[in-house]
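Appendix C reproduces, verbatim, an entry submitted by the partner laboratory led by Prof. M.T., so that reviewers can inspect both the input and the predicted structure.
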Amino acid sequence: MKTRSEQGGWTKNAALLYYQAFLLYEKPEDTLKQVLGEFRAGEIGSNEAIRAYIEKNRRVIEYAVKAASVPHCDWGYDYSERIDLTLPNLFPVRHLAWLLSTEVRLLAEQGDYRTALDRCVTMHKMALHAVDKSMITYLAGRAGGTLANRAIQAVLAVMPGDVNTLQQLKAQLRQIEAAFPPLENAVTQEGQIWTAITHKEKAQVALRVLEQDFEEFTGRSYKQRIETGDEAFFERNRTHWLQAIAALVDVLKSGQPYPQTYARLDELERKQQSESVDNPDATFTALLLPTAHRLYSLTTKFHTHFNAVLTAIDLYILKAKTGSLPDALPAGMPLDLYSGEPFDYEKAPDHFTLRCRTKEDPVDTEVKQYEFKLKP
């Protein structure tokens, strides 16, 4: 007789499997936690404690792998709570990602490179499931994807050339990268979430939230405006807030090159902050508007890292086929999204470097670069 799980009753929603993994997860004590971090960073090799930790969490890993393979994931958030929305999965998902990242290192050390890369793909799928509708879950998903890409780099650095495995990985990553929702979706959702407190009847809730989140809030005129504002004040603020969000979304969807988009977002945010000094209608906008230029920078950083990994896989494939790296990047490689141009490529006997051509932030002194090691 088939179980309900085998019939699909429990596996139509990945969240049910994730929550079971959360319940079974054995958190490492502080000393082991530090050792695990050093192992994931490649600073030390495995030891008995690390191997035992993975085996204690074997069922947890199995649940995570099963969950990641399920397309649909509904965490059961109560969106009616809006600003008081609870996110019980946020930290447990991070713990699962660290657990899988540790197993990736162990599998690679043991020579099981294919399974190690499969786990990296699982981490990416988990990141997609973590990306939901709010800004905090969106950023959590991006962080999970970054951890997965770093794990891939670690495996590629030690595995022998295997064209089939590398081509399969490349195809999987292209599908995953394309599935990540754009930043403007999260910004739009954030606008809807915070609209909940721009109502007269929510004034006390707004004051409570803003006093918790903004250290200088009580010493500003903003507090007095909210305390004494009538319904018309809140309605004008609501209109101003949604217009400001719409303006950010328009810039994000404009398709302009990175430097122009970054500068335009920064300009809009500065304008809103300046306007709020004399315009009471901009009170909530000044307090709540997301730092979209920073969020845009983080998103571009994630996708540029993704493109660097995809480019590196192509180079590893060429090396596996020909025995050596090319002297220059072949045409048609993924781009450095900061400049919109191919990466600057430099090879050495034991590694190669992919370097961005434009800085992430105008105040940075150096451009970002990604180093990929070669198996001796």
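The chain has three domains: 1-180, 185-290, 303-376. Additional entries are available on request from the coordinating office.
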